[in-house]
Amino acid sequence: MKQRGLAELEDVERRRTQRRSPAPAPASLSTALPPVGPQTRPNGQLYHPRMVGDLEDLAFLRDARSHREHVLLVGPPGTGKTALSEAAFVQDAVQGQHNGLETIVGTADTDVSDFVGTFVQNPTTGGFEWVSGPLIRSIENDVPLLVDEIALIDPRELTVLYALMDGRGELHVTQNPTLPPLKVGPNWFVVGACNPDVPGANLSDALLSRFHHHVEVTTDWDLAADLGVPLDLITVAKNLDSRRQQETYEGWIPQLRDALAFAGTARRYGQDFAVASLLRKCPSPDRTEFAEAMKDKFGEIAPLALGTRVPAGRR
Protein backbone atom coordinates (compact mmCIF):
# COMPACT_ATOMS: atom_id res chain seq x y z
CA MET A 1 0.00 0.00 0.00
CA LYS A 2 2.83 2.36 0.85
CA GLN A 3 4.48 1.70 -2.53
CA ARG A 4 1.18 2.36 -4.34
CA GLY A 5 0.66 5.60 -2.45
CA LEU A 6 4.20 6.73 -3.28
CA ALA A 7 3.66 5.93 -6.96
CA GLU A 8 0.44 7.94 -7.00
CA LEU A 9 2.17 10.93 -5.41
CA GLU A 10 4.97 10.76 -7.98
CA ASP A 11 2.42 10.61 -10.81
CA VAL A 12 0.57 13.68 -9.45
CA GLU A 13 3.83 15.61 -9.16
CA ARG A 14 4.86 14.64 -12.70
CA ARG A 15 1.58 15.88 -14.13
CA ARG A 16 1.82 19.10 -12.12
CA THR A 17 5.34 19.72 -13.50
CA GLN A 18 4.14 19.11 -17.04
CA ARG A 19 1.42 21.72 -16.58
CA ARG A 20 3.98 24.25 -15.35
CA SER A 21 6.42 23.60 -18.21
CA PRO A 22 5.51 25.46 -21.40
CA ALA A 23 5.43 23.52 -24.63
CA PRO A 24 8.62 24.03 -26.67
CA ALA A 25 8.17 26.65 -29.40
CA PRO A 26 8.94 25.60 -32.96
CA ALA A 27 12.24 26.91 -34.29
CA SER A 28 10.55 28.50 -37.31
CA LEU A 29 7.02 29.02 -38.54
CA SER A 30 8.02 30.19 -42.00
CA THR A 31 6.69 27.01 -43.60
CA ALA A 32 3.27 27.74 -42.07
CA LEU A 33 2.91 30.92 -44.14
CA PRO A 34 3.00 30.21 -47.88
CA PRO A 35 4.51 33.16 -49.78
CA VAL A 36 2.15 35.47 -51.62
CA GLY A 37 4.60 36.35 -54.40
CA PRO A 38 5.04 39.57 -56.42
CA GLN A 39 1.92 41.75 -56.59
CA THR A 40 0.89 44.63 -58.84
CA ARG A 41 -0.03 47.70 -56.80
CA PRO A 42 -3.08 49.84 -57.66
CA ASN A 43 -0.76 52.31 -59.44
CA GLY A 44 0.44 49.54 -61.78
CA GLN A 45 3.89 49.12 -60.23
CA LEU A 46 5.13 45.62 -59.40
CA TYR A 47 6.00 44.99 -55.75
CA HIS A 48 8.77 42.49 -55.07
CA PRO A 49 8.33 40.79 -51.67
CA ARG A 50 11.05 41.00 -49.04
CA MET A 51 11.89 39.04 -45.90
CA VAL A 52 10.84 40.09 -42.41
CA GLY A 53 12.58 37.64 -40.12
CA ASP A 54 11.99 34.22 -41.68
CA LEU A 55 8.72 35.30 -43.32
CA GLU A 56 7.75 36.91 -46.59
CA ASP A 57 6.55 40.44 -45.79
CA LEU A 58 3.27 40.12 -47.72
CA ALA A 59 2.41 36.80 -46.08
CA PHE A 60 3.30 38.25 -42.67
CA LEU A 61 0.94 41.22 -43.07
CA ARG A 62 -1.91 39.03 -44.24
CA ASP A 63 -1.39 36.65 -41.32
CA ALA A 64 -1.21 39.56 -38.86
CA ARG A 65 -4.55 40.74 -40.23
CA SER A 66 -6.13 37.32 -39.66
CA HIS A 67 -5.15 37.57 -35.98
CA ARG A 68 -5.93 41.33 -35.75
CA GLU A 69 -2.37 42.07 -34.74
CA HIS A 70 -1.84 45.68 -35.78
CA VAL A 71 1.46 46.51 -37.50
CA LEU A 72 3.54 49.70 -37.37
CA LEU A 73 6.01 50.24 -40.23
CA VAL A 74 8.77 52.76 -39.56
CA GLY A 75 11.54 54.03 -41.80
CA PRO A 76 12.77 56.87 -44.00
CA PRO A 77 10.61 58.15 -46.87
CA GLY A 78 10.83 56.12 -50.06
CA THR A 79 11.70 52.74 -48.55
CA GLY A 80 8.41 51.08 -49.51
CA LYS A 81 6.16 51.24 -46.43
CA THR A 82 3.08 52.28 -48.39
CA ALA A 83 3.96 49.97 -51.28
CA LEU A 84 4.15 46.99 -48.91
CA SER A 85 0.78 47.82 -47.37
CA GLU A 86 -0.94 48.17 -50.73
CA ALA A 87 0.65 45.06 -52.24
CA ALA A 88 -0.31 42.88 -49.27
CA PHE A 89 -4.04 43.36 -49.80
CA VAL A 90 -4.45 44.31 -53.45
CA GLN A 91 -5.65 40.79 -54.28
CA ASP A 92 -8.72 41.52 -52.13
CA ALA A 93 -9.67 44.61 -54.15
CA VAL A 94 -13.26 45.01 -55.32
CA GLN A 95 -13.56 47.11 -58.45
CA GLY A 96 -15.44 50.32 -57.86
CA GLN A 97 -15.35 49.92 -54.06
CA HIS A 98 -11.82 49.64 -52.70
CA ASN A 99 -8.23 48.54 -53.47
CA GLY A 100 -8.12 45.96 -50.71
CA LEU A 101 -7.68 48.56 -47.96
CA GLU A 102 -8.63 52.12 -47.05
CA THR A 103 -5.97 54.80 -46.60
CA ILE A 104 -5.72 58.08 -44.74
CA VAL A 105 -2.59 60.24 -45.04
CA GLY A 106 -1.91 62.08 -41.82
CA THR A 107 -0.89 65.71 -41.38
CA ALA A 108 -0.62 68.05 -38.41
CA ASP A 109 -4.19 69.18 -39.21
CA THR A 110 -5.80 65.72 -39.38
CA ASP A 111 -8.69 65.38 -36.94
CA VAL A 112 -11.37 62.84 -36.04
CA SER A 113 -13.68 64.00 -38.84
CA ASP A 114 -11.00 63.10 -41.38
CA PHE A 115 -11.24 59.53 -40.06
CA VAL A 116 -14.98 59.07 -39.60
CA GLY A 117 -16.48 61.61 -42.01
CA THR A 118 -18.59 64.75 -41.85
CA PHE A 119 -21.75 66.39 -43.09
CA VAL A 120 -21.34 68.03 -46.50
CA GLN A 121 -23.78 70.45 -48.10
CA ASN A 122 -25.47 69.23 -51.29
CA PRO A 123 -25.13 72.08 -53.83
CA THR A 124 -28.38 71.05 -55.51
CA THR A 125 -30.70 70.71 -52.55
CA GLY A 126 -28.86 72.90 -50.08
CA GLY A 127 -29.26 70.20 -47.45
CA PHE A 128 -26.44 68.54 -45.55
CA GLU A 129 -25.59 64.90 -46.23
CA TRP A 130 -23.33 62.57 -44.29
CA VAL A 131 -20.16 61.46 -46.12
CA SER A 132 -18.26 58.63 -44.44
CA GLY A 133 -14.49 58.84 -43.99
CA PRO A 134 -11.88 56.12 -44.56
CA LEU A 135 -12.23 54.64 -41.06
CA ILE A 136 -15.95 53.98 -41.46
CA ARG A 137 -15.46 52.76 -45.03
CA SER A 138 -12.80 50.30 -43.86
CA ILE A 139 -15.21 48.90 -41.26
CA GLU A 140 -18.14 48.74 -43.70
CA ASN A 141 -16.01 47.03 -46.36
CA ASP A 142 -14.20 44.89 -43.77
CA VAL A 143 -10.74 45.79 -45.06
CA PRO A 144 -7.56 47.03 -43.33
CA LEU A 145 -7.01 50.71 -42.57
CA LEU A 146 -3.61 52.17 -43.53
CA VAL A 147 -2.78 55.30 -41.54
CA ASP A 148 0.11 56.77 -43.50
CA GLU A 149 2.32 59.36 -41.80
CA ILE A 150 0.60 58.43 -38.55
CA ALA A 151 3.30 60.12 -36.45
CA LEU A 152 2.32 63.56 -37.80
CA ILE A 153 -1.24 63.33 -36.45
CA ASP A 154 -2.03 64.88 -33.07
CA PRO A 155 -2.13 61.91 -30.63
CA ARG A 156 -5.42 63.22 -29.19
CA GLU A 157 -7.12 62.73 -32.56
CA LEU A 158 -5.87 59.15 -32.80
CA THR A 159 -7.83 58.11 -29.71
CA VAL A 160 -10.68 57.40 -32.16
CA LEU A 161 -8.77 54.18 -32.97
CA TYR A 162 -8.18 53.01 -29.40
CA ALA A 163 -11.43 51.11 -28.79
CA LEU A 164 -11.12 49.44 -32.18
CA MET A 165 -7.52 48.37 -31.70
CA ASP A 166 -7.58 47.09 -28.12
CA GLY A 167 -10.18 44.36 -28.51
CA ARG A 168 -13.46 46.21 -27.98
CA GLY A 169 -13.87 46.41 -31.75
CA GLU A 170 -16.73 48.90 -31.82
CA LEU A 171 -16.93 52.47 -33.13
CA HIS A 172 -19.44 55.00 -31.83
CA VAL A 173 -19.68 57.95 -34.21
CA THR A 174 -20.56 60.92 -32.04
CA GLN A 175 -20.37 63.21 -35.08
CA ASN A 176 -23.45 61.47 -36.49
CA PRO A 177 -25.78 60.16 -33.74
CA THR A 178 -28.05 58.53 -36.34
CA LEU A 179 -25.39 55.94 -37.13
CA PRO A 180 -25.56 52.75 -35.05
CA PRO A 181 -22.39 51.44 -33.38
CA LEU A 182 -20.13 49.89 -36.02
CA LYS A 183 -18.48 46.56 -35.23
CA VAL A 184 -15.28 45.54 -36.99
CA GLY A 185 -15.18 42.32 -39.00
CA PRO A 186 -12.55 39.58 -39.26
CA ASN A 187 -10.51 41.36 -41.97
CA TRP A 188 -10.20 44.74 -40.25
CA PHE A 189 -6.97 45.86 -38.62
CA VAL A 190 -4.62 48.86 -38.66
CA VAL A 191 -1.32 49.32 -40.46
CA GLY A 192 0.52 52.46 -39.39
CA ALA A 193 3.39 53.91 -41.42
CA CYS A 194 5.71 56.76 -40.51
CA ASN A 195 9.16 58.24 -40.49
CA PRO A 196 9.91 58.58 -36.75
CA ASP A 197 12.73 61.05 -37.42
CA VAL A 198 10.67 63.65 -39.31
CA PRO A 199 10.21 66.96 -37.47
CA GLY A 200 6.99 66.93 -35.47
CA ALA A 201 6.70 63.14 -35.28
CA ASN A 202 4.92 62.05 -32.11
CA LEU A 203 3.39 58.70 -31.22
CA SER A 204 1.88 58.24 -27.76
CA ASP A 205 2.77 55.25 -25.59
CA ALA A 206 -0.91 54.31 -25.57
CA LEU A 207 -0.95 54.04 -29.35
CA LEU A 208 2.46 52.35 -29.64
CA SER A 209 1.35 49.63 -27.23
CA ARG A 210 -1.67 48.85 -29.42
CA PHE A 211 0.56 47.91 -32.35
CA HIS A 212 1.50 44.27 -31.85
CA HIS A 213 4.39 44.38 -34.34
CA HIS A 214 6.87 47.21 -34.99
CA VAL A 215 8.83 46.69 -38.22
CA GLU A 216 11.68 48.84 -39.54
CA VAL A 217 11.58 49.26 -43.33
CA THR A 218 14.85 50.05 -45.10
CA THR A 219 15.96 50.03 -48.73
CA ASP A 220 16.86 46.70 -50.34
CA TRP A 221 19.86 47.70 -52.45
CA ASP A 222 20.13 44.26 -54.07
CA LEU A 223 16.60 44.77 -55.37
CA ALA A 224 17.57 48.27 -56.48
CA ALA A 225 20.42 46.81 -58.55
CA ASP A 226 18.05 44.28 -60.12
CA LEU A 227 15.71 47.15 -61.03
CA GLY A 228 18.45 48.98 -62.90
CA VAL A 229 19.84 51.43 -60.34
CA PRO A 230 23.50 52.19 -61.19
CA LEU A 231 25.97 50.42 -58.92
CA ASP A 232 27.89 53.64 -58.30
CA LEU A 233 24.84 55.24 -56.68
CA ILE A 234 24.22 52.10 -54.62
CA THR A 235 27.83 52.22 -53.44
CA VAL A 236 27.47 55.86 -52.37
CA ALA A 237 24.25 55.12 -50.47
CA LYS A 238 25.72 52.08 -48.73
CA ASN A 239 28.84 54.01 -47.72
CA LEU A 240 26.75 56.82 -46.27
CA ASP A 241 24.58 54.34 -44.38
CA SER A 242 27.72 52.71 -42.96
CA ARG A 243 28.96 56.12 -41.86
CA ARG A 244 25.60 56.85 -40.24
CA GLN A 245 25.84 53.64 -38.21
CA GLN A 246 29.34 54.69 -37.14
CA GLU A 247 27.90 58.14 -36.24
CA THR A 248 30.21 59.95 -38.66
CA TYR A 249 27.37 61.07 -40.95
CA GLU A 250 23.94 62.43 -40.04
CA GLY A 251 22.78 63.74 -43.40
CA TRP A 252 20.42 62.67 -46.15
CA ILE A 253 20.70 59.28 -47.85
CA PRO A 254 18.72 58.47 -51.01
CA GLN A 255 16.33 55.54 -50.63
CA LEU A 256 14.72 53.18 -53.14
CA ARG A 257 12.23 55.70 -54.52
CA ASP A 258 15.00 58.26 -55.03
CA ALA A 259 17.29 55.64 -56.59
CA LEU A 260 14.64 54.48 -59.06
CA ALA A 261 13.94 58.09 -60.03
CA PHE A 262 17.69 58.59 -60.54
CA ALA A 263 17.87 55.52 -62.81
CA GLY A 264 14.90 56.69 -64.87
CA THR A 265 16.31 60.19 -65.22
CA ALA A 266 19.72 58.84 -66.27
CA ARG A 267 18.13 56.74 -69.00
CA ARG A 268 16.21 59.70 -70.40
CA TYR A 269 18.55 62.65 -69.92
CA GLY A 270 21.97 61.21 -69.13
CA GLN A 271 23.88 60.47 -65.95
CA ASP A 272 25.18 64.00 -65.32
CA PHE A 273 21.63 65.38 -65.45
CA ALA A 274 20.47 62.66 -63.03
CA VAL A 275 23.28 63.50 -60.59
CA ALA A 276 22.48 67.21 -60.77
CA SER A 277 18.81 66.46 -60.12
CA LEU A 278 19.60 64.23 -57.13
CA LEU A 279 21.91 66.86 -55.65
CA ARG A 280 19.12 69.43 -55.87
CA LYS A 281 16.71 66.94 -54.26
CA CYS A 282 19.02 66.55 -51.28
CA PRO A 283 17.99 68.89 -48.41
CA SER A 284 20.13 72.01 -48.52
CA PRO A 285 21.72 71.58 -45.05
CA ASP A 286 23.12 68.20 -46.16
CA ARG A 287 23.92 69.05 -49.78
CA THR A 288 27.60 69.97 -49.40
CA GLU A 289 28.52 66.77 -47.58
CA PHE A 290 26.34 64.64 -49.85
CA ALA A 291 27.86 66.21 -52.96
CA GLU A 292 31.32 65.40 -51.63
CA ALA A 293 30.32 61.75 -51.25
CA MET A 294 28.86 61.70 -54.77
CA LYS A 295 31.99 63.30 -56.27
CA ASP A 296 34.08 60.17 -55.71
CA LYS A 297 31.91 58.20 -58.14
CA PHE A 298 30.37 60.82 -60.42
CA GLY A 299 32.78 63.75 -60.45
CA GLU A 300 32.03 67.34 -59.50
CA ILE A 301 28.58 68.33 -60.78
CA ALA A 302 26.51 71.33 -59.74
CA PRO A 303 22.94 70.86 -58.44
CA LEU A 304 20.27 71.24 -61.11
CA ALA A 305 19.26 74.82 -61.83
CA LEU A 306 17.87 76.93 -64.66
CA GLY A 307 20.56 78.65 -66.67
CA THR A 308 20.62 81.22 -69.44
CA ARG A 309 18.06 81.35 -72.23
CA VAL A 310 18.16 78.74 -74.98
CA PRO A 311 20.55 79.76 -77.81
CA ALA A 312 18.81 80.90 -80.97
CA GLY A 313 20.17 77.97 -82.96
CA ARG A 314 18.44 75.42 -80.70
CA ARG A 315 14.97 76.95 -80.74
From TrEMBL:
Residues 67-220 form the AAA+ ATPase domain. Residues 20-34 have a biased composition (Low complexity). InterPro entries: AAA+_ATPase, ATPase_dyneun-rel_AAA, CbbQ/NirQ/NorQ/GpvN, P-loop_NTPase. Residues 1-45 are annotated as: Disordered. Pfam families: AAA_5. It comes from the Bacteria. SUPFAM superfamilies: P-loop containing nucleoside triphosphate hydrolases (SSF52540). This is AAA+ ATPase domain-containing protein. It comes from Streptomyces tremellae.
